[in-house]
Every structure is written in C-alpha cells, then in structure tokens.
Amino acid sequence: MTRNGRRPADVRRDIALERERLATAVDELRADLDLSEMLGAKLPVLAAGAVGAGFVLFGGIGATMRYLARRGREGKEKARVGPFSFTTRD
Hints:
The protein is an alpha+beta fold. It has 2 domains: 1-33; 40-90, no CATH class. It contains 4 helices and 2 strands. It has helices at 8-32, 35-39, 43-57, 60-73, and strands at 76-81, 84-88. A two-stranded antiparallel ribbon has the order 1-2. A hairpin with a 2-residue loop joins strand 1 (76-81) and strand 2. The protein starts with 7 loop residues before the first helix and ends with a strand.
C-alpha cells in the first residue's frame, strides 16, 4: 500500500489502461488530420496562391510599379547641379 491507499499493481494497471486510451486517441486524430487526402490535387493551386499572396503582402506590386516608373523617367544626363540633374529623353 502507498500513501494514497493504492497498491503498486493497481497503479501500474491504471497507467497501462491510460496508455491504451492515449494510443487510441492519437490514432483517431491522425486519421482525422490526414492532409495528403485533403490537399491531394489542390496542392499546385494552393502553392501558386500562396506565392501570389506573399508577393502582394510584401509589396511586390508597388515595388514593381516603382521600378517600371523610374525606368521610364530615366534619360541621358546633360548636367548636374548638387542633387539635381538635367536630362534629355530620347
């Protein structure tokens, strides 16, 4: 007998039963959360969507537009005065 009035054999039996219950619960959760079945053929579409969302969220459109606008304003520099320059566009 231990302090709580249970024998070591009873404690071992309870631990073994709890292990079995936990193993069953884990198996059920794994069966419910099988992502390969859920995603299946949708994986390429989801990957493309994730790339597009990341591009938009991290400012890809704005950065691309600023780059294109800057390239359109570039010309040949004729003279420079301090931070300012005089250019000609072809």
